[in-house]
Design a protein that fits this description.
Radius of gyration: 40 Å
Structural class: mainly beta
CATH architecture of the largest domain: Sandwich
Number of domains: 4
Strand content: over 45%
Distance between the termini: 112 Å
Helix content: under 10%
Length: 483
């Protein structure tokens, strides 16, 4: 193998190593429900999170009402970020070269559920920070929540977690089935049982560990009649009910059944019981199957206009309770409100055809749209008189023969007027042409001809041309003098 071939092969292996390192040091989106957006490090723009998207160091995630996202770590660990949360990926670094293995995150607000693989050596580090606490993870399943006062609560389901206060530096070890809380600036509370009264881990038939899986945003109209399918898991031998109605629980503890829902926000409670233990799970399911309704108070009217500013106002109503609606006018955000709201916007038209598109979109992406075409023409028609050619035309008419009426003022004469009417681009088209109050119909090419009546003396031509947009051209500069 020559030197060039060896160099190419070495470069190829280096490229593969770089790509593998990049894959190892990123997370991926396992699923996403509702409105979730991501902001990359040192970037101002927020982007919509999509399934299988790569999430890397420095990315910030934000979830909104009834939204959640699952992040899959390169080692198989999983983090679920629930609704109304702000979550940063601080570090994901798995390097074989320097034997470092580090993952760290920050939860600024909201709630997460996490399940981390068990650590196997001292070089591995997993932690999640909040404004008031640091959670050091040793391979466990837990829930973590940050409230509006930046206090942090921890609920451990399996494993052990070191829970440390940023304010006092005090630390407690929270084990399986325990919970603790840190208020900002204070020490952690002593770990206490997170099991409901009447049961504890290991009593009777074991821990209930109720878990229900359901899509928290429902958009299919069929669910209003058929209900929503619930599935989940509970300890074998337990019973489960939803809204007082029994659910099916098989011998392995698999839960199945349906629950009736209505349009809007539904708060549903699932209750599981086993050997005196009781555990509840509250589900908030948002059903959104109806489109927003657009009502215009100053409606869009298709037609021709000669003013650049077009004032548009209206209201949007969403029949789904608590739904959030965003209104766009030609892709520009003009209003955002919950349930019902009004909007007003002045549209600056361009010459020629303008498309006016009003669109209302709710949280479930149900949308309504109103579209119209407006034509702006601010250019007046052009009048050209070809006969008589002179601006002042003198016509000589002899007096009548002897014996006829010699009252010259009462004499009338016919005169042909010929010309051309042009409506320049952007052309809305000629609407009407009048000469001395008498309407004339131009031909297709704009030419026209008509006879007018003259009297002796000065005859001023008053020509008025109007296009379909309302632009008017007046010309009274021409005169025919009969002598």
């Amino acid at each position: 193998m020559n030197i060039v071939s060896k160099s190419i092969l070495l470069f190829f292996f280096m490229l593969i190593s770089i790509i593998n390192a990049q894959i190892q040091n990123t997370a991926r989106v396992g699923f996403v429900v509702g409105r979730v957006q991501v902001q990359s490090y040192q970037e101002a723009e927020w982007k919509r999170v999509r399934y299988n998207m790569v999430i890397k160091k420095g990315d910030r995630l934000q979830t909104f009402l009834n939204a959640r996202v699952e992040l899959k770590m390169p080692d198989g660990s999983v983090i679920k970020v629930n609704e109304n949360s702000i979550f940063d990926v601080t570090e994901i670094k798995i390097s074989k070269s320097d034997q470092t293995d580090e993952m760290s995150f920050t939860l600024f607000a909201g709630n997460i559920w996490a399940k981390f693989k068990k650590l196997v050596n001292s070089r591995q580090s997993r932690k999640i920070e909040s404004p008031s606490a640091v959670v050091a993870i040793r391979g466990t399943e837990f829930e973590m929540e940050v409230d509006s006062k930046e206090g942090t609560s921890l609920n451990v389901i399996e494993g052990k977690v070191a829970f440390k206060s940023k304010g006092t530096g005090k630390e407690v070890l929270v084990g399986a089935g325990q919970k603790s809380e840190i208020k900002k600036g204070q020490s952690p509370t002593p770990p206490t049982s997170n099991q409901p009264k009447g049961g504890r881990p290991g009593s009777g038939g074991g821990v209930l560990k109720l878990g229900i899986n359901v899509n928290k945003l429902q958009t299919d109209p069929a669910v209003l009649g058929a209900g929503i399918t619930l599935s989940g898991k509970v300890a074998a031998g337990a019973t489960a009910t939803v809204q007082g109605q029994p659910l099916n629980v098989d011998a392995q503890g698999n839960i199945s059944g349906t629950v009736r829902v209505k349009e809007g926000l539904n708060t549903i409670v699932v209750i599981a019981k086993l050997n005196g233990q009781t555990q509840n799970q509250t589900l908030k399911i948002f059903v959104n199957t109806k489109k927003p309704e657009i009502q215009l108070s100053t409606p869009v009217v298709s037609g021709f206009f000669n003013r650049r500013d077009y004032s548009l106002s209206g209201a949007v109503f969403d029949p789904t309770p608590l739904d959030k609606v965003t209104v766009y006018l030609n892709k520009e955000l003009v209003a955002q409100f919950q349930g019902r709201g009004t909007f007003n916007r002045t549209v600056i038209l361009k010459e020629g055809e303008n498309i006016i598109r009003i669109r209302a979109i709710d949280l479930a992406k149900n949308s309504s749209e109103v579209n119209q075409k407006l034509f702006l023409d601010t250019v007046k028609p052009i009048i050209t008189i070809t006969e008589p050619a002179q601006p002042v035309y003198i016509r000589f008419e002899p007096p009548p023969p002897p014996g006829q009426n010699h009252n010259l003022a009462s004499q009338r004469f016919k005169q042909a007027i010929r010309g051309l009417i042009i409506d320049p681009q952007p052309s809305s088209g000629v609407k009407s042409v009048f000469i001395n109050g008498q309407e004339v119909k131009p031909n297709i090419d704009g030419s026209f001809e008509m006879n007018i009546t003259l009297r002796r003396g000065e005859n001023r031509l008053n020509i008025v041309a109007e296009d379909l947009a309302g632009n008017i051209r007046r010309d009274n500069s021409r005169m025919i003098r009969v002598q």
